[in-house]
Specification:
This protein is mostly helical and 285 residues long. The chain is built from twelve helices and two strands, in the order ααααααββαααααα. It has one domain.
Length: 285
């Protein structure tokens, strides 16, 4: 499809050259590193308060600190995805910038599909910055050995598989994140104003937390339930608690529930793409 190829090339060019996108990636990387440093300061305060050595704390370890710093940074990532993706399309329409690509014989369907692809890429690149920034600083500040409580080994990394669980949690977050990006793009295609598109996206994100007590059994089938930060059943958050020495976290029951999240966002992803095309083709520019 030549029209889609040209639309995608244009969207990827803008994605790689927009100043706001570059600043967002730098901010995520730096903040992830800062959170790792802040975690060290927090652990030092806890050790002093409990009159123990810093190295005796179970959380004084690379694996829980990498997970914790990444999890905290993902709040910013998910907020940035919504603001950058959902708010961009209504703003471009209001400023008449949308007429330029459509005047070059790029169909509306091709354009919104290309925009959906970029909305899928942005969460992944921001996520990668969060992972790399937190991993580098955590590796500098913390040891990657077994999880210790004083002289006692709580978890052996090789035997318990803390590292495997963490890598699994990080992969688990990918599909909910890209679904969030595409849904934010859909909201931009549906609503005429950026504030409405961003607001609708935020409501979709926080709804699992708002209605969790009433629909706890159904929530794993909702895409936002397993978002790494705002998700009420975040896999990454659960593993972060587990790797810090809490043996009650990351139970077999939780893992069975989390298995739903490997596929549950797919219907929302597909429906979002369809709705984007339908609404944008009829949208007044």
């Amino acid at each position: 499809m030549p029209s889609f190829s040209r639309a995608l090339a244009g969207e990827l060019y803008l994605f790689s050259h927009r100043r706001s996108i570059r600043i967002a990636h730098i901010a995520v990387f730096v903040l992830a590193a800062v959170f790792a440093v802040m975690n060290l300061g927090l652990l030092a305060a806890i050790a002093k308060m409990n009159t123990v050595e810093l190295v005796e704390l179970p959380a004084y370890n690379f694996w829980p600190q990498w997970a914790a710093a990444t999890h905290t940074t993902m709040y910013l990532v998910e907020l940035l995805v919504v603001m950058l993706v959902a708010g961009s399309l209504p703003h471009e329409i209001m400023s008449a910038a949308m007429r330029d690509p459509l005047s070059r014989r790029i169909s509306r369907t091709s354009f919104i599909l290309a925009r959906s692809v970029v909305a899928l890429v942005l969460p992944l690149t921001l996520y990668a910055c969060a992972l790399i920034g937190s991993a580098l600083m955590s590796a500098i500040l913390f040891d990657a050995g077994d999880i210790m409580d004083g002289q006692e080994v709580l978890f052996s990394i090789s035997e318990v598989g803390v590292d495997t669980a963490l890598f699994k949690a990080m992969w688990h977050a990918v599909l909910p994140l890209i679904t969030l990006g595409v849904i934010a793009s859909t909201c931009g295609a549906i609503f005429k104003r950026s504030v409405l598109a961003v607001g609708a996206s935020f409501i979709l994100i926080i709804s699992p937390t708002m209605f969790y007590s009433d629909f706890k059994d159904q929530m794993p089938y909702y895409f936002a339930d397993f978002l790494p930060a705002f998700g009420a059943d975040s896999f990454l958050h659960e593993v972060a608690i587990f790797s810090a020495g809490d043996s009650t976290a990351f139970s077999e029951n939780y893992e069975e529930m989390a298995n739903i999240g490997w596929l549950s966002p797919l219907p929302y992803l597909a429906l979002s793409v369809i709705l984007s095309v339908l609404f944008f083709r009829r949208k007044s520019l």
